[in-house]
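Continuing the series of single-chain predictions for the mutant panel. This is the parent chain; the variants come on the following pages.
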Amino acid sequence: MSDYYAAFPLYTREQVLALKSESTDPVALIDLLAQTTASEDTKILGQDTYAGLLKTAAYRQRLERGAALIDGLGIGTPARIDLSILPPLSFFLRADFALETPYLSRDDRAFSVTENPVRKDWVFGLPLIAATTWKGALRNACLLEARKAVDRLFGSEPPKNSRSEESPSSQHEGRICAFTSFFTQIATEIVNPHDRVRRIGKNPIRIECVPRGARSRLALLYLAIPRDDESRRLTPVEFRKQVADDLIAVAGCVRGAMRDYGVSAKKSSGYGAAADALVGERGIIEVAGLDGGPASFAKFSELVERAEGLAARIKESV
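Parent structure:
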């Protein structure tokens, strides 16, 4: 990589302007433009050049090819899961959504043309919402929507220090598994931090984002496996009621995270919310071993109602 940067140095305005004709690969150009941050003389020009590259058809096609390859390899966000191999009453939730507000995150690359690059897959370059990010956002929503279910759905919190007297047996994993979601669009936003006293902006900053309207898929899997202490004290009827309650809680968490609280960095400022209406196919909630087939929904606002219908069927089934 060092030879690559040495072959195309970008430390003067002339070098940046000349680079446009050196390569037709937008990803290669973006990598090279990270060098412009080394000089104030080239920093703004590099970011403007980068913002233009994001709008080109070549860059959009590159991301779309990456998404197609991920799906072809079977490592993308699943549309369905074979629940027959899972414990009865496990359920799968899928929703294809479009962003209503831009999504912000933080990549772990240390060398970037923008001050805050959005998190991307290392191999395919696709912006993403990691499975851990989903779980964090949903857990936050659950604390506000269904606090009693937090420990069961998302697991116990680790001890705050290594000297904790809490026994290992009291630690347990949650029942919710999330899948990483991918996007095929990247854009830039201008943020303008304000002076707290004078309340005026200074030094506008260009940051990466996934823009409004970008589409992706949320997929969650709930494993209906009681903890060891629960399996000894819960009757089958009580366990079914517990799963039914969890289903309603998950639906409320998803609706809250997607519509009310956001799943993005700076979500308190309105970033990372999804449109109410789903895109593409209708969303589904499918329960393993439950007669009557999956429930479907076209809006996040319908999700809790559909979950309540499934929960009633779970409690009634024998």
